[in-house]
Design goal:
This protein is of the alpha/beta class. Helix content is about 45%, strand content about 10%.
Length: about 675
């Protein structure tokens, strides 16, 4: 059986250069089309004989620069002198022009006078004084400009780079910014203070890039990727730049959102182009900031079964990381503060081989970070960096840089020649608590309630072993709070049971003081109650410290929070609620009992607050005596090599401003409660 001959289909392939030919043909056709106009150049003698003497000229235009005369003729003259041209039957002379050259201006003027005197020509005479160059410019200029503009647009559209200014044909190119080792300003590990453990991890990556043979000769493989995980502002991007600076290799930097585009397939194309450029620059580093923009776990948010561009981009990234050569010298660094939502395939060995946790700086790291950011700040000799590091717990590197800059601005605003310790204290106050609002109007009753509330916090915290040491209490409105108490939190790695109970009791001290000494309660304790309730639920449901529910934890370390279901029954939920209520009531009664015992001291603190609007550690120590329990932070400082003496510490504490305000006097205040994640790591 013979096979039927199938006809060959003609495939049409468009070429962008055809556009040049089409546009050029259109422009040439427009230019050379004469619109049925007729021109004729004749000698001067013929012009006078056939047109002037026959009274066939109606209008004359004189081009003085070219010594040319242009004449419009009558219909009869057109029919007589243009017999070889097919003219329209109606108005045949409409588009007919006769040209001739004259010798001198004086001869032309004499001829025009004679023609007018004899009646041979009495029409209008126009003079054109524009030069020949201008005529050519007006004639060819628009065409040249149009061609140049078209070529410029086509070059932009077909330009190969994918950076800013690229056209539609470069939309699939990578937008990574290249910091070449010979051109960019180098950042080294000297510019990164603290982060000792993280720097130790990445130093090995630097050694891989500097001397790869040292590892490959023994059969070792260079890691393909390292993921920097940590809270915002801890220096993940700066650490990645320092790795490139130390290794002295090209550094491609881009954000995860740079892969996202409205066109389908653009993200995957940019990933391919990025790794193609990286191979040309190898050995090099690719740094993807906020990789969770494209690395989110697949399948969590199905888009009605349609094609998900973000998942396609992630698939291409997984392919590229697992596809290029093991020893090609390309290392991918990525940063995120949401590692829990990343796709598991992205975190497996062979792609991101290492996860480096960049945590908030501890006491010694904060001191080193302050020393880095104070290099360019003119400080007075009495600025104590140790004290600044103590009073900024929880600050990231970005927060410390902001504090140093804010202190310099405050000193400059006051006209000082150097930045003094009080300027740093005011800067920390400004960052943590907000701007002072002394203009806010409060009644006498409100001031007494606020002073009683804050004095209650100060009294309770002073007499509890695990409560944070007091630094300063004020009733001056700041930010959203009508009053605030600053403490010096102890940086603990683990928290004992009694410390949580003491913290809840301290939080409830303000409400308890209002009830005992004013006879009524107010809405000012909203933030205190919120934090105390969350801490009580954490105590019962997360840590398993309750006697009724011992050793039970309902905390979800994956961050998914169990979706829409709870991991316990309704009866167990009632037990948890009742246990939380019992715990809060016990600590509330405990706070009231402590306040009854130290009522005289509390009232004295309240009166000082009403009079001076602020009290410091020395005021509380004068009233209640020296605190029985020493601060762990003091022990850390004493163990460090410091030039500050105990006397200097005592003199500066009375003017210090801490960084953990107990701003529990305004219902809109949003001071975050302690989070259990630090104590429940895997």
């Amino acid at each position: 059986m013979k096979k039927k001959n199938t006809p060959k289909t003609f495939s049409f392939r468009f070429n962008i250069f055809w556009m040049y030919a089409i546009i050029g043909a259109i422009l040439i056709g427009i230019w050379y089309s004469k619109d049925s106009s007729f021109e004729k150049s004749v000698p001067w003698s013929e012009f006078e004989e056939k047109y002037i003497l026959q009274k066939g000229v109606t209008e004359i235009t004189v081009h003085t620069q070219k010594h040319e005369l242009e004449a419009k003729i009558t219909d009869n003259s057109a029919r007589e002198n243009f017999k070889d041209v097919k003219l329209p039957a109606k108005n045949p002379a409409k588009n007919v022009v006769v040209r001739t050259i004259y010798h001198t201006d004086s001869d032309l003027s004499e001829s025009l006078k004679n023609w007018n005197a004899t009646g041979l020509f009495k029409g209008e005479v126009n003079y054109d004084h524009s030069g020949g160059f201008m005529n050519y410019l007006w004639s060819f200029g628009p065409l040249v400009i149009l061609i140049v503009f078209w070529i410029w647009m086509m070059r932009r559209m077909t330009r190969g780079d994918g950076g800013a200014g690229g056209g539609v044909f470069s939309v699939g190119k990578s937008k990574a910014q290249l910091f070449d080792k010979d051109k960019s300003t180098r950042v080294t590990f000297k510019d990164v203070a603290g982060l000792q453990e993280a720097k130790t991890e990445v130093e090995e990556i630097v050694e891989f890039l500097k001397n790869p043979k040292r590892y490959t000769e023994l059969g070792g493989k260079i890691p393909k990727g390292a993921l920097l995980v940590g809270p915002p502002g801890t220096g993940k991007t700066l650490l990645a730049k320092a790795v490139a600076g130390e290794a002295n290799v090209p550094f491609f930097s881009l954000s995860g959102s740079d892969f996202v585009e409205m066109f389908v397939g653009v993200g995957a194309s940019r990933v391919r182009d990025l790794f193609k450029k990286a191979k040309e620059k190898a050995p090099c580093i690719i740094f993807i900031d906020e990789i969770d923009a494209v690395g989110r776990a697949r399948g969590r948010n199905p888009n009605m079964g349609s094609n998900d561009e973000r998942e396609n981009t992630l698939n291409q990234l997984l392919t590229e990381m697992d596809g290029f050569g093991t020893n090609s010298g390309i290392i991918v660094l990525a940063a995120t503060n949401r590692a829990d939502i990343l796709d598991k395939a992205l975190l497996r060995a062979g792609r991101f081989d290492r996860q480096i946790y960049v945590d908030l700086p501890d006491l010694n790291d904060r001191k080193a970070i302050f020393n880095v950011h104070l290099r360019g700040v003119k400080t007075s000799p009495d600025v104590n960096v140790d004290l600044l590091a103590r009073q900024t717990p929880g600050f990231s590197g970005a927060d410390i840089a902001n504090a140093c800059n804010e202190a310099a601005l405050i000193a400059a605003r006051a006209g000082k020649k150097s930045v003094e310790p009080q300027d740093f204290m005011n800067a920390v106050d400004r960052i943590v608590g907000g701007l002072e609002k002394r203009s806010k109007i409060t009644t006498r009753e409100e001031r007494e309630s606020i002073a009683c509330h804050e004095a209650g916090h100060a009294t309770i915290s002073w007499h509890l072993q695990y409560a944070n040491p007091l630094i300063k209490v004020t009733i001056v409105p700041r930010g959203k709070a009508l009053g605030a108490a600053w403490y010096l939190p102890e940086e603990r790695q683990i928290t004992p049971r009694q410390a949580i109970l003491d913290e809840i009791c301290s939080l409830l001290g303000g409400r308890a003081a209002e009830e005992l000494f004013t006879g009524h309660i107010s809405t000012g304790a909203l933030n205190d109650l919120e934090r105390a309730t969350k801490q009580a639920y954490t105590y019962v449901a997360f840590y398993g410290m309750s006697d009724s529910l011992p050793n039970v934890c309902y905390y979800d370390s994956t961050g998914q929070d169990y979706g829409f279901t709870k991991p316990y029954s309704e009866s167990r939920a009632q037990v948890i609620d009742s246990e939380v209520s019992r715990l809060i009531n016990e600590q509330y009664e405990r706070a009231k009992e402590l306040l009854r015992t130290h009522a005289a001291g509390h009232n004295e603190l309240r009166d000082i607050l009403l009079d001076r609007e602020v009290i410091y550690t020395e005021d509380v120590e004068r009233i209640f005596g020296k605190r029985q329990w020493s601060s762990r932070a003091d022990e850390i400082i004493k163990s460090n090599e410091s030039t500050a003496t105990d006397k200097t510490d005592n003199n500066t504490d009375d003017k210090a401003v801490g960084t953990q305000p107990n701003a529990g006097t305004h219902p809109d205040d949003e001071t975050p409660p302690p989070v259990p994640q630090d104590l429940l790591e895997k």
